[in-house]
Amino acid sequence: MKTTNRKLSLLAYGLCLAAVLYNCKSKEVDPPGSGVYTFPALDKVKMPDQKVSTPAAVSVTAATVTSSTMAAAVSAGLKNIAATGQVPSVVLDASANVGKAIPADKAAAMIAAFTPDVINNLVSKGEMPASLKADVSAAAANPSLQGYMPAYTLPKVNGKPVGGRIGATVAAALSPNSVTDLDACKKAANDAYTAAVAGYDGVKATQIAAVNTAYTQNEVAANAEVAGCQSGIPAKYNALIATAKSDFDAVIAALAASRSVLGEQVYAQQLVLAYVTFGQIVTVYNTLIVAETSACTLTKDAKISAAQAARDGDLSTINANYTATVSAAAKARDQEIASCHNQGNGG
């Protein structure tokens, strides 16, 4: 009987020991360093958004040509002389002004120099013999004749009359602080910082790509506008030159018809005035052909320059934001490391 009780006691002890061992295994503590750490200060550090700036507008002012009302009055007066036999005062006044500006022998030489070939070359190419061009320019600039000459203004680009890339430096990323003998929390903070910087790198790269893409689009658009800007200029001024030639021919015909009424001196003075006026207006038109053609190119250059300025300003801001963000992240990381003793098994 005692044997039976002894066996029952041993069995009971065995069951209790098994139960104890089972319960102890289910409550085993996680090994050191396996805790999950959070770093809210570091998580709050973000790269600022960057909008692509619009380049500054480029202003373009067109060239202008203003015909002389005094020259128009003389032309109108010449038309009726043959029919009326009367010389209007505006014609006589013009002849007197020519006499003040151009001596009779110089006037005769200039008239002889304006041969049909010279006139044709002037119309088709805008060219005159150098000596004749100098004489026409001098006469047109004389105060006595300036009122009979056309007035004009050159085109302007950004307010400057037309007659005559710094790449951004990308800031280097700040290197993580070197920390030795990190415990689990400190290592996690440093790893979180490294991952955050990698994210900032991605944001910066995306922002830079957007800025550079916008610049390229602006550059391509500016270059593409040049051909269209320049294409209509020759036709525009060729039409004006053709009109000037037609008006000139009408004056020459009126002078021929009224020569006997005018007399040789006044006739010669009116003829040289007609040549000078015609030579000057064609010279003006050809000057403006060159100026407006150049203005198209200068407008393109100004637009690209404005796009470059916008791009470089944006890149500078992005780099400054990136540097500030990485610095802020490093500061947040250091704060988190300093407080690691409050988290997990760190400290």
Automatic annotation (TrEMBL):
Signal peptide stretch: 1-18
Entry keywords, A to Z: Signal
Record's protein name: Lipoprotein
Gene source species: Spirosoma endophyticum
